[in-house]
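U., I forgot to send this yesterday:
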Amino acid sequence: MKTKAIVFTGIRQIEVSEVQLKPLGSTDVLVETYWSSISTGTEKMAYNGLIPSPPFIFPFIPGYETVGKITEVGDHVKESLIGKFAYIAGSFGYEGVNAAFGGASQFVACPVDSITILDGIENPQCGIALPLGATALHIVDLAEVKNKKILILGQGAVGILAAELSKLMGAKLVAATEPHPKRLKFSPADIRINPEKEDVSAALAGHEFDVLIDSTGIMAAIDTGLRFLKFHGTVIFGGYYQRMNIDYSQAFQKELSFIAAKQWAQGDLERVRALIAERRLNAEKIFTHQSPVDESITETYLKAFGDPDCLKMILNWKSEGKEANGSCYLTGKP
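Result:
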């Protein structure tokens, strides 16, 4: 079966191409994509050729944020799944093209065990928030935020969700820094600081934080944040970093602990799905931009990569998009 897909063909080269799906296996499902999204971290680095290792070998299909409807199942998969919406973390089910992670395709063939059924969410488009929500949840779990004071650097999509989840999980105080006014406006943090317009030291005077969460990848920002950690404080690295170059003297003097957060843990996607359905996590706030999948795909990616007001770019694979209307929450919930 052939399908339309977004393909990174070389450094800074993107096109919408026809690709060949592998035959559906006995434990696979075939999903028709309604929405996918652009990762402004991983995919931006791959676009610029900064991840020259498998699976990011050109040509490749990106995408680990995909939602669609199951249209066909393998022989060993329950037929009752047909017609259900699911979140797909990606797929390796292609011939002649690599997958990194392969979710940006009009049709996706993947193992049934790798999907998350979106039962309980009124608007399945909100399933796009599952991977970022699960990433933020894993960060917050590693931080053990209950009754602690948390400082978060950066209020992109992950930073905003980490701030919201920190408060939900019982943090005593959440402060956040972010230089872009619109992003800062979305932040649920108790203390919100624009470091380009305010004196961070003055804004945080009198506070010592138990945990520093970085979602910027900017070493200078991390160095500044380290100054506000208490003795035996913890730093959580919430992004992907090519190299680390921070002020070791702060780590030495305060005997700081450093933890690298890798994506999400088992069960986190389901936990985020439940939080969205129960109206405990507002995922919609990160959906700032939408675009069709068409010949202007390169411009769409560049906007997602370069516009600080774009928290999350949703790609619409179906023109009618009627399922995109409504909230993320269960019908009948308060």
